[in-house]
Structure prediction request, 162 residues.
Amino acid sequence: MSNALREVDLENSSGEASLTIRAEVAAQPDTVWSFLTEPALLLQWSPVVPDRDLTEIGPAFTEDPDDEALDATVISSTPPRSLSHKWGEGRLDWDVQDTLEGCLITLTQQLNDVEDAAQAAAGWHLCFDDLALALGSAAHPQALEPEAYWGSLVERYQKHFS
Prediction:
């Protein structure tokens, strides 16, 4: 698990809030693209899994037997660089760029409420930890129980945003 906070930005203008969070991973863009778009690979790190690959524009829904389906309609897709899709009422915009060590993933999430920013940042922080683990580019030492670790991240992101 990454102890340092991720690089994040929070914008709140005209009543619309968005969170941008970045993660570097030691994997090539084509590999990361597969982990962003294929349900079997998303299952390894994402909180929700779509009912189809997210490579084609059009309707998609999440599959979670314990929760109500979310709209995950693909708005745009430019493999292996950018993907925009709905996340329920909001939207997720993914950008993948080459780096010397692999690639940089930038995620921008529209937030319904700016007050949700720290929780969203902590959640994506953990997801990116799990993604790095799934890609084989990070170890997963666990000093705290997952809920305690998430809670500590929420507190740290709240301080960061204030």
Remarks:
- Strands lie at 7-13, 16-25, 74-78, 82-87, 90-98, 103-111.
- The mean pLDDT is 90.
- The domain at 7-161 is CATH 3.30.530.20 (Alpha-D-Glucose-1,6-Bisphosphate; Chain A, domain 4).
